[in-house]
Amino acid sequence: MGKKLAVLALLVVLCSVTGQAAGSLAVGFYDHTCPNAKKIVRGVVEVAMQQNLECSSTTASSWYLATYAHVSSGRVLQCRRSLDLYKACGFEAIDAAKEKLEEACPGTVSCADIVAFAARDASAVLSNGRVSFPMPGGRRDGRVSLSSAALQFLPPPSFNLSELTASFAAKGLDVDYLVVLSGAHSVGRAHCSAFTDRLAPGSNSTMNDALAASLRRHCPASPNATNDPTVNQDVVTPTSLDNQYYKNLLNGNVLASRSTNASVTQLALSSGLFEAKFAKAMVKMATIEVKTAPKGEITRFCRKVNGSPDIRVAARSKQQLHNSA
């Protein structure tokens, strides 16, 4: 898989979850009903990461966003529509995994669980095996999918620290979780429109002068829908999810402005601390407000709820993933 695929060392040890249930969720949920479920998802994830190195971090970032916003409520389809993530890389792999799972175990594995498992597997693949953890299963998919409802579950880039804290608190996540999960900014890309306000004269930005100068050369002064380039969120180790984000925070090499505290320094300087805390936080997110039986459903296609008008899902890249896995 190559060292360049080491993006997203996310979810390390999950000591307290192994062999236990989180509500109606459980590690090994499909052991009897679809024993190869995790193996199938992992195979598709590995192929997806190998086929397109450039978009590997986007793929993983898409899965992590979906985990935060919608896996917990069975709203995978909403996430894809409202955030346009389906045009990114990640969800073609979700379709491919779903298709293979329907062949092996029809009507058994939910799209919400597939996304959660994909986030777990991306962590292992992209960290060259340094990060491995059990993800509980048993989620169900929502029966209603309104793209307009999805954005309320994701904090926009414009949120300040107070607004982010409130957004996380609504999910039952405290400030420590906010600090740890912000480490996801170590991978993926950001549109210039998300941070150009920090590049304007008199913005009182804490951004490093050299980084600001580089971004001014790359980004238009007034980004719009037709001219809004993207840049790496982590300018030092852009293809690795590691604690570099916190080191960047300390020296101003970040796109977004966030207050720092003692936790940031600890995460920047302590080897392995970020990985362990991020693992716990990701699993925590994936077990919040879940839909479990008898609520929700197991959707046949991850792009539509059951009973809705048929949607053609056969994309060339999805078929390649399906055939290769």
TrEMBL record:
InterPro entries: Haem_peroxidase, Haem_peroxidase_sf, Peroxidase_pln, Secretory_peroxidase
Keywords: Calcium, Disulfide bond, Glycoprotein, Heme, Hydrogen peroxide, Iron, Metal-binding, Oxidoreductase, Peroxidase, Secreted, Signal
SUPFAM superfamilies on file: Heme-dependent peroxidases
Enzyme Commission number(s) from the entry: 1.11.1.7
Domain of life per record: Eukaryota
Positions annotated to bind Ca(2+): D234, T237, D242
GO molecular function annotation: heme binding; lactoperoxidase activity; metal ion binding
Function: Removal of H(2)O(2), oxidation of toxic reductants, biosynthesis and degradation of lignin, suberization, auxin catabolism, response to environmental stresses such as wounding, pathogen attack and oxidative stress.
Protein family membership: Belongs to the peroxidase family. Classical plant (class III) peroxidase subfamily.
Protein name: Peroxidase
